């Protein structure tokens, strides 16, 4: 069985700490079991997969904007399938299926199990996922789902309505699916639960050839390179709507274990082992109040209960916990550049951004590069940069030449100049960008590894010596 983790969602639900490149699964707010360090939902679920040896057959489907964040959190060898543009779960699963089929040469009869990357679950969840492999093979079903036993009449989840009666000729009892109901009102949810409905947990299992045949019927190529060329032609729609609800012979396995969607500040804070992360004070008479503060200034809450305060470079949220889910709708039309991002080499935070004149913008960042890591050898067509080294030592490459850098050095990088830097010890840098357009997409990467940069610079030196 191949496991596909979906990790490409946008970042409005836990604003202001989440953004388009740092959506909810990347927030480090969950306590690890064996240390005082905090971990993200992605790190937690990847560790759980490792504990039962499922990680070796697992792949992470993510969008281009989130690649560095994934690699930063679970390692540079993470097996990624990358969307060049975010389009919804049906295109993402289609792309991954074609990748498995034409690049990995997976047996078409092998089962693919799709999981969301961000639920809060325990080991029993994955044990049940493992059973789906045999269930699909033995039952002859086109798709097998996992349905959670509802603990309250939620309006946020979809519901699966099974047919009455169980079939018991497999290791785990399953039910045939009668219909689906998407996010009902509370009174309807109560009625559905009384009839035996289950929450749709977003877990899908199917034979690879089933998905490939759907794409062929739709007229799409099933060779990865050709499929990527027409990716933007796929309908921007969920896998539930495009495939599951149209399929014949769909079954569901009830799951009674721990499962929580930590998609709002209210549900997320329920699983936090502390009421406060970052600088701040919460008074004793502020009951059920949480502060998550990523700014270097204190947040003080006095005599206010049942609220969440989240503050970071993107903004500040103060919300009644029960109403915190509304932030997604409130912010859905706001176009924001990410003010904080983790990268495979470290992280950066935007400190200031503004217009100097009609045709000139300025942006100031703090950049931290972890010891032994490097920024790619790159160039920018629309901006120049000035770097000031606050601490650490490293190697700096500029247009084919290498320089040693240390605390206090100032590095000037003209527009179009090729440049990169490696941290021999952790480097802290203040970067000031100036140009007509200041966006992360204005980057041409020439080399990713520092060995490639050194080799390039040595070749440039030899060329100059020969010319002389």
Automatic annotation (TrEMBL):
Its EC number is 2.7.7.13. The gene is rfbM. It comes from the Bacteria. Coiled coil: none annotated. Keywords: Nucleotidyltransferase, Transferase. Residues 4-273 form the Nucleotidyl transferase domain. It is an enzyme of class 2 (transferase). This is Mannose-1-phosphate guanylyltransferase RfbM. Residues 342-446 form the Mannose-6-phosphate isomerase type II C-terminal domain. One of its GO terms (molecular function) is mannose-1-phosphate guanylyltransferase (GTP) activity. GO terms for biological process: GDP-mannose biosynthetic process; polysaccharide metabolic process.
């Amino acid at each position: 069985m191949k496991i596909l983790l979906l990790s490409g969602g946008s970042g409005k639900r836990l604003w202001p700490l989440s953004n388009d490149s740092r959506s909810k699964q990347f927030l480090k707010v969950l306590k690890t079991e064996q240390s005082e360090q905090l971990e993200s939902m992605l790190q937690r679920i990847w560790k759980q997969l490792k504990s039962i040896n499922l990680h070796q057959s697992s792949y992470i489907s993510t969008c281009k904007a989130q690649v560095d964040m994934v690699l930063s959190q679970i390692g540079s060898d993470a097996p990624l399938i990358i969307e060049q543009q975010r389009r919804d779960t049906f295109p993402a699963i289609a792309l991954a299926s074609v990748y498995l089929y034409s690049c990995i040469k997976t047996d078409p009869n092998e089962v693919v199990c799709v999981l969301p990357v961000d639920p809060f679950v325990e080991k029993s969840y994955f044990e049940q996922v493992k059973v789906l492999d045999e269930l699909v093979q033995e039952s002859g079903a086109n798709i097998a789902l996992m349905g959670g036993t509802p603990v309250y009449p939620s309006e946020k989840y979809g519901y699966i309505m099974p047919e009455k009666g169980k079939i018991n000729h497999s290791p785990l009892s399953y039910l045939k699916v009668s219909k689906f109901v998407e996010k009902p009102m509370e009174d309807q949810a109560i009625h559905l639960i009384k009839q035996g409905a289950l929450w749709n947990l977003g877990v899908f299992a199917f034979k690879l050839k089933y998905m490939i045949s759907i794409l062929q019927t739709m007229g799409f190529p099933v060779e990865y390179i050709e499929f990527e060329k027409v990716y933007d032609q796929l309908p921007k729609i969920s896998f539930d709507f495009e495939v599951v609800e149209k399929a014949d012979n769909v079954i569901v396995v009830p799951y009674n274990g721990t499962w929580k969607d930590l998609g709002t500040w209210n549900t997320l804070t329920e699983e936090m082992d502390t009421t406060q992360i970052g600088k701040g004070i919460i008074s004793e008479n502020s009951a059920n109040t949480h502060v998550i503060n990523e700014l270097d200034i204190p947040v003080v809450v006095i005599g206010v209960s049942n609220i969440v305060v989240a503050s970071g470079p993107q903004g500040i949220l103060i919300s009644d916990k029960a109403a915190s889910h509304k932030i997604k709708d409130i912010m859905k039309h706001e176009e924001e550049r990410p003010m904080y991002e983790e990268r495979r080499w470290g992280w950066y935070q935007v400190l200031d951004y503004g217009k100097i004149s009609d045709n000139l913008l300025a942006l100031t960042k703090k950049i931290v590069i972890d010891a032994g890591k490097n920024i790619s050898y790159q160039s920018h067509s629309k901006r120049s940069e000035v770097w000031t080294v606050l601490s650490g030592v490293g190697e700096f490459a500029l247009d084919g030449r290498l320089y040693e850098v240390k605390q206090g050095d100032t590095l000037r990088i003209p527009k179009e100049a090729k440049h990169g830097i490696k941290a021999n010890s952790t480097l802290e840098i203040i970067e000031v960008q100036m140009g007509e357009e200041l966006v992360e997409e204005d980057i041409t990467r020439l080399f990713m590894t520092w060995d490639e940069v050194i080799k390039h610079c040595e070749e440039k030196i030899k060329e100059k010596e020969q010319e002389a």
